[in-house]
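Why does residue order matter? Because the sequence determines the fold. Keep that principle in mind as you read this record.
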Amino acid sequence: MLKALCGAAVVALSATAASAADLAMKAPPPAPVKFTWTGCYVGGHVGGVVSDDRTISSLGATADFSSPGFVGGGQIGCNYQFASTWLVGAEGRAAWTSLANRHGASVRFPALGNLIVPSQFGLKNDFLASATARLGCVYAERWLVYARGGAAWTREKIDDAFIAPVFVVPTDPSATVTRNGWTAGAGVEWAFAPHWSANVEYNYYDFGTHGPVLLTSPLNSVTVANLKDTIHAATIGVNYHF
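Structure:
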């Protein structure tokens, strides 16, 4: 009798274990976590920039020039995803650039009978920043195609080196100017992990044509009648979403 009861217990336990195993095997896998673009993020970007500039001297001479460079910086922003496939957001960027150009120019001295001497005009853009709004379209949950636009700022370091005709010594009048303008661009972003995304984008910066710009030194001063400054930037970046 005891052996029969033990046998029955073993059979019952075996059947229970088998049923539990079947249930575990048949249980559906947990649903993947759905990615949402709503929220804020912080990240960095690197890439290349090309300037497209023009000077108009006090003589009326026009010089077009361009230079390539490197750009690297950071960004912070927030997004709101609505109607499942649309997104609005805002982003601030600040970056350092290596843009620098130097080319031949000329300086006129009215006090010396409009004497003209050759010079070397230089322009550097060592800072680039923007505050933009963006509108995007979400595709397949983790892809975002977007356009952006807003305000932009750059810092220009300008100089015009020449040999002073009176003292016959090198002189280099200069000025540092912060200019504001506008920017517009577009990009593609991919969410490759629950809190991470990577993007590729292009942005155009236009700081208009402004002047006059006064360059000064201990010996001489030079006036640049007008300076046009525009920049093209292509970057890749990564963002952490929180």
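The longest helix spans residues 2-26.
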